Inverse folding.
């Protein structure tokens, strides 16, 4: 079992150890051995392209799907690889047979790209788009469930609800099982946006009760970027197709996603090595124990040093490895006027501050405006330690002191 923190970073990762990375939740980072594994597949492909594509490629796909399916608690026949969660969600929405007047239900915390997919569907497929506005501050899970039930009971034309497992902004562990049950009550299909879930939480997708699930492997499961899964309930195997049509088979779902022209699937084929690394350093129990405590301790440290607070939500909705902390009041951290239903401007990146903190202090974190207030999202990964967050706290205090 590995020792976590900077020692693990230097031993296993290609990250520049002179810099501080607190944003595993956005782009992830694969260990060196996983990148080398991927390089091995690329070398094999380049050394003998015909041999690779004609006789080896499909066997690699099926083998890796078997491995990943076990990790996410699924029959391999229900799983296909996609480049990322956004790709998987696109495939589902573009494949479903929406009729004019059908509805799609999302919420104010829905990821921006997913909102865009739904807006496109509303414009081109003539579906109605509905929002659940999640209260701020959020005091209980029941507020979310009540809001969903009100929307579902009022608009019984809603055909599909998109539900985050762990939302991105603000990062929150959603009451996904209860939300699925509500949707079932109103005969509404459920698509789970699980971008942040693989590696943060154990998954049992075949027992979850959803119709579709899309999740990234590059964020918390240490696979290369460009590797994600789409889980499809068996009843929909013959109706869900990739965004790009290359192969067309109504009987075997994986073939449509596998045959995507002369593609480079090496990111998918490196997932077994990534999951091997995940298990070798302690598996879910040890990784969760370390990263959950680190996220908690880091958030408390920042709240204390900045004299601010966490994003207000129930404790049982706090995600394992991420937190959102209020920034101090200052011109560096601007506020924006937004109304309660201003969904377009609900969440804005503070790119100027992110760039300043990176260029001056060599620290990468996420600064963002939500509900008109400035916040910092931190991630806790196996290569982080509490000193990383002390550096972040001090960097922000330095910026504040300079303007006094």
């Amino acid at each position: 079992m590995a020792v976590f923190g900077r020692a693990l970073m230097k031993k296993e990762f290609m990250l520049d150890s002179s810099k501080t990375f607190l944003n595993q939740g956005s782009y992830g980072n694969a260990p060196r051995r996983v990148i080398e594994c991927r390089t091995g597949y690329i070398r094999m492909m380049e050394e003998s392209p015909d041999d690779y594509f004609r006789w080896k490629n499909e066997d690699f796909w099926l083998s890796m799907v078997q491995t990943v399916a076990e990790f996410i608690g699924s029959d391999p026949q229900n799983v296909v690889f996609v480049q990322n969660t956004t790709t998987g969600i696109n495939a589902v929405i573009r494949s479903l047979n929406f009729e004019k007047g059908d509805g799609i239900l999302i919420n104010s915390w829905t990821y921006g790209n997913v909102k865009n997919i739904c807006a496109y569907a509303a414009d081109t497929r003539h579906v109605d788009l509905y929002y659940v506005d999640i209260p701020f501050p959020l005091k209980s899970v029941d507020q979310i469930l009540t809001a969903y039930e009100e929307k579902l009971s009022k608009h019984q034309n809603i055909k599909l609800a998109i539900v985050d497992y762990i939302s991105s902004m603000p990062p929150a562990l959603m009451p996904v099982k209860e939300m699925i049950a509500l949707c079932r009550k109103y005969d509404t299909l459920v698509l789970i946006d699980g971008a942040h879930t693989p590696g943060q939480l154990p998954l049992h997708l075949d027992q979850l009760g959803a119709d579709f699930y899309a999740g990234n492997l590059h964020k918390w499961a240490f696979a290369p970027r460009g590797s994600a899964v789409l889980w499809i309930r068996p009843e929909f195997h013959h109706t869900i197709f990739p965004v790009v049509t290359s192969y067309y088979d109504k009987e075997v779902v994986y073939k449509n996603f596998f045959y995507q022209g002369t593609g480079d699937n090496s990111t998918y084929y490196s997932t077994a090595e990534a999951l091997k690394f995940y298990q070798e350093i302690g598996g879910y129990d040890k990784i969760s124990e370390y990263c959950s405590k680190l996220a908690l301790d880091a958030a408390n440290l920042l709240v204390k040093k900045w004299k601010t607070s966490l994003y207000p939500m129930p404790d049982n909705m706090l995600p394992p490895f991420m937190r959102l902390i209020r920034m101090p009041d200052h011109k560096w951290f601007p506020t924006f006027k937004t109304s309660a239903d201003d969904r377009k401007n609900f969440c804005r990146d503070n790119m100027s501050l992110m760039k300043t903190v990176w260029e001056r202090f060599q620290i990468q974190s996420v600064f963002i405006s939500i509900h008109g207030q400035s916040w910092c999202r931190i991630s806790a990964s196996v290569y982080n330690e509490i000193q990383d967050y002390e550096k972040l706290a001090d960097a922000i205090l330095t910026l504040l002191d300079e303007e006094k």
